[in-house]
Amino acid sequence: MIKVIILICIFLPANLFAQGFEIYKKGDGAKYHMKMQDNPDSEISIYFADVKKESISVEFFIYAQNTLIPVKLYQQFLLAKNTDGSLMIKESYIQGPDEKYPQRMNPESFTNSNGIELNDFFFSDEKQLKASLIGKEELLMAAGKARTHHYRKVHNGQHIDYWISHDSKPFGLIKMISKNEKVAEQNYTVELLAILKNVTATINPKNAKPLDQNGKKILNGVPTFK
User: Fold this and answer.
1) Can you give the three-state secondary structure of the chain, one letter per residue?
2) pTM here?
3) Does residue 104 contact residue 209 with C-beta atoms inside 8 Å?
4) What is the rounded CA–CA span in Å between residue 85 and residue 226?
5) How far is it, in rounded angstroms, from Cα 197 to Cα 191?
6) Cα–Cα distance between 208 and 203 in angstroms, integer?
7) Which strands form 55-64's sheet, in the order they lie side by side?
8) Domain residue ranges of the chain, discontinuous segments joined by +
């Protein structure tokens, strides 16, 4: 299972939202190609499901097409700001391919004892971001050339290198590489494919049910992509 830590990383850094959530447009997003060590390649579409002054909802659609049975999975997060300007997850949902209704995820789903956690990416100020800066680089991607800032985070054996371009709206993430010699699922590469517009969200939080055993299996590592 692709951990939520992989998906939420596009919110690096929190100053992307410094001007307020309302400058972003519902339906805007980006599509990424993801290559994992022990799973088939997949595509991840990330887009704004709802935009309000005080909060913003982001939905992720994961699609693995080179499996015997194509896998489709949706996740949605409601984000808001703490008093110090950093981001926090207020609500989160998951919906599998055979589920009629979304399920409400538990807060413990956001912890990752084996590596980098969600909060490791929710920088509250520019100083914390600069501490992770490696340098400036130009990358040639499937989506074209991009001038980027290269950053690195290390925690519990997981090394994540990521390249951010403030010219690439709405998220800025161009590429991300995660490595861990001891944890196979933390070896993956994410690369920008295209910018998205006018995407309609699938998950409706009003219809969400409590997390059941099937939802827990997805979050805890059932081989969804095998």
Assistant:
1) CCCHHHHHHHHCCHHHHCCCHHHCCCCCEEEEEEEECCCCCEEEEEEEEEECCCEEEEEEEEEECCCCCCEEEEEEEEEEECCCCCEEEEEEEEECCCCCCCEECCHHHHCCCCCCCHHHHCCCCHHHHHCCEEEEEEEEECCEEEEEEEEEEEECCEEEEEEECCCCCCCCEEEEEEECCCCHHHCEEEEEEEEECCCCCCCCHHHCEECCHHHHHHHHCCCCCC
2) 0.81
3) yes
4) 40
5) 18
6) 8
7) 133-141, 144-155, 158-164, 173-179, 188-196, 29-36, 42-51, 55-64, 71-81, 87-95, 103-104, 209-210
8) 4-215
pLDDT 10s digit of each residue in the chain, 226 long?
Answer: 445 344 444 444 444 556 678 888 999 999 999 888 777 888 989 999 999 988 889 999 988 876 666 678 899 989 887 776 667 788 999 998 778 899 998 766 655 445 544 455 544 456 767 888 999 999 987 777 889 999 998 878 888 898 988 888 888 889 989 898 888 878 889 899 999 999 999 999 999 999 888 887 777 654 433 3
The CATH code for residues 4-215 is 2.50.20
Structure tokens at 184: 């196979």
